[in-house]
Design a protein that fits this description.
mainly alpha, transmembrane helix
Length: 251
């Protein structure tokens, strides 16, 4: 089995941020505008995620379209989990943020105890990939809870939230450039891209009276999905081209 996850490049982070935005606006659209409600949307997306994850696990290498489809669905499900805890069960965002932090830390601890590495450059077994996707799910749930805590409970707002979370990610990038632990910096940035994407989605979709641009959840979701599809198609073409070159005589 070849490595099952993509290289961490600028395109990787662009798609990741846009997928979190789609997770935020897409979940809101299905639950509110379509009228499915939080529970039905959560169950529907969880079932779809399970089906797509099975396909992803059956692959023997990184396949851009199935990998990023899984990420988008994990984003939606992670958002729905946090929203259900907050809206349905009325669990405090302080509690859910702490709980997801503990769950993520436990996932990393078990992952490292079993595999002796947390590197995403060695996702070459099904067991490691299961640890990887469990961590991804908790990063989305934690990012949603922490983002809502900052922008709503603490009154930061999505306008300031975009700037604040972008600044934190820039700080992490600077720390990485200065020699900080690459694995730690990756996962911290991965968590923070969730509230950044959510704040960006709110900024674009919310009406002008609330400080947003007023595009609405439909147009915001469609715009970001279009860019994601275009980038994933480009990555797929690049990958096919590289494999063709390697397979060619004398390559």
């Amino acid at each position: 089995m070849l490595n099952k996850v993509p290289e961490v490049t600028l395109v990787f982070w662009l798609i990741k941020i846009m997928s979190t935005t789609v997770g935020e606006t897409g979940a809101d659209y299905l639950a509110v505008h379509v009228g499915l409600g939080t529970s039905v949307t959560g169950l529907l997306m969880a079932g779809l995620l399970a089906a797509v994850l099975v396909i992803q696990l059956r692959m023997d290498r990184y396949v851009p379209w199935i990998y990023w489809l899984t990420v988008v669905l994990v984003s939606i499900v992670g958002t729905q989990i946090t929203d259900a805890l907050t809206d349905k069960l009325e669990i405090s965002l302080y509690v859910s943020t702490a709980a997801f932090s503990i769950a993520l830390a436990a996932t990393f601890a078990i992952w490292f105890a079993v595999e002796r590495t947390l590197s995403i450059h060695s996702i070459v077994t099904t067991r490691r990939e299961l640890f990887y996707w469990a961590a991804i799910l908790f990063t989305f749930a934690l990012g949603t809870a922490a983002g809502d805590l900052a922008t709503e409970a603490l009154g930061l707002g999505f306008n300031v939230g975009v700037v604040a979370f972008a600044a934190l990610i820039a700080t992490i990038a600077a720390a990485y450039a200065l020699g900080a632990n690459a694995v730690l910096m990756f996962w911290l940035a991965y968590i923070l891209t969730r509230p950044l994407g959510a704040s960006l989605g709110d900024l674009l979709s919310q009406s002008r009276e609330y400080g947003g641009i007023g595009l609405g959840t439909i147009y915001t979701s469609l715009a970001f999905l279009t860019v994601i599809v275009a980038l994933v198609a480009w990555l797929s073409f690049e990958g096919d081209t590289d494999r063709t070159r390697k397979a060619s005589p004398g390559a």
